[in-house]
Amino acid sequence: MTRLTLNAAALLLDMDGTLVHSTTEVETVWRLWCRRHRLAPEPILAICHGVRSFEVIQALAPDLDLAREIALLDEMEILHTGAAEPLAGCRSVLQGLPMTHWALVTSASRRVALHRLASAGLPLPLQLVGATDVTRGKPDPEPYLLGAERLGLAPADCLVFEDALAGVQSALRAGCRVVQVGGDRTLDPAVVTRIRDWRQVTVIKDGDGLQIRVQT
After folding, report:
1. Are 42 and 101 contained in the same domain?
2. Most CB contacts within 10 A, which of 63, 106, 175, 185?
3. Does 75 share its domain with 92?
4. In this predicted structure, what is the pLDDT of residue 180?
5. Are residues 12 and 148 in contact, defined by beta-carbon separation less than 8 angstroms?
6. Does residue 59 sit in the same domain as residue 115?
7. Which of 86, 67, 70 is nearest to 33 (CA)?
8. Which H or E run includes 193?
9. Which residues is 181 bridged to in the sheet?
10. pLDDT 10s digits, 145-155
C-alpha cells in the first residue's frame, strides 16, 4: 500500500454514494415512481445516478408535470431514507474538517440532502449546492463551479470526491481534481486516484488549506 499526498484549499463533496450508502434507496424510489407511471425502470436506472430528477424526467418522461413529479420524488426520498448509513470513515473525516473548508455539491434537493446527512449522523455543511441552485445539473460543470465560487476559491484549488460518472465529468469539466469513491474501475482516466471508502483518507489542516493523505 502506498500513500498519495494531495494539497487543496478545500473539498467539494458529493453525497449519495460518496458520503452516504444511499444508492439502493435512490433506486427503490425510482422503481416505485416508475411503477406509479407504468414505466420500465431500466432506462431510468441506467441514467439516474448522480443526476438531478429534473434531467432524468425531462429525458425519459417529458410529458409529465416536471415540478409536480420532482416534488413527489422528494417526498418519496424523505420517506424511504430510513437510518442512512455513512461510508466507513466518513464521519470522522468530516468531523475533523474545518467547516469553512468544504461544501456539499449534490444532485439531491437541499431538503433531501440535509435530511439524509442528519439521518446518517454527519455534519451539516455551511455551503450546499443542491438541485435547485443550478440551471444545469451534473454532468454540466455548473454545480462544481458554483461550489468553488461559494467558498471563494478557484475550481483548480478544490479537490472533489465523487462516485458517479456524471459527477466525475461535472467536476473535471469545472477544472477540479477528482478522487473517485468506490467502483470496480476508474470512471475517467483523469481522476487522481480511487478509494474504497474514507478509511483510506486523512485530512490535515495545512496553513490556509488542507493536506489530504490517501492510502492506495
Report:
1. no
2. 106
3. no
4. 98
5. yes
6. no
7. 70
8. strand 193-195
9. 195
10. 999 999 999 99
Q: Are residues 150 and 198 in the same domain?
A: yes
Report which residue type is found at 120. A
The residues assigned a catalytic role are 14, 16
Q: What pLDDT digit, counting tens, does each position of 155-171 carry?
A: 999 999 999 999 999 99
User: 3-state class of 156 per DSSP?
Assistant: helix
| Helix, strand and coil in the chain, % to nearest 5 | 40, 20, 35
- Residue 27 and residue 15 in one domain: no
Same domain, 74 and 161: no
Q: Which pLDDT score is estimated for 109? A: 95
- Same domain, residue pair 43 and 9: no
| H-state helical runs in the chain | 23-36, 41-45, 53-60, 66-80, 90-96, 110-119, 142-150, 165-174
Instruction: List, for the chain, all residue ranges whose pLDDT scores fall below the cut of 50.
Output: none
55: left (phi over 0), alpha (psi -120 to 50) or beta: alpha
CB 168 within 8 A of CB 14: no
Whether residues 8 and 33 share a domain: the answer is no
Does residue 207 contact residue 8 with C-beta atoms inside 8 Å? no
Cell of residue 56, nine digits: 432524468
State the total domains in the chain. 2
- The residues, ordered by sequence, that sit 6+ positions from 201 with a Cβ below 8 Å of its Cβ are 89, 93, 195, 212, 213, 214, 215
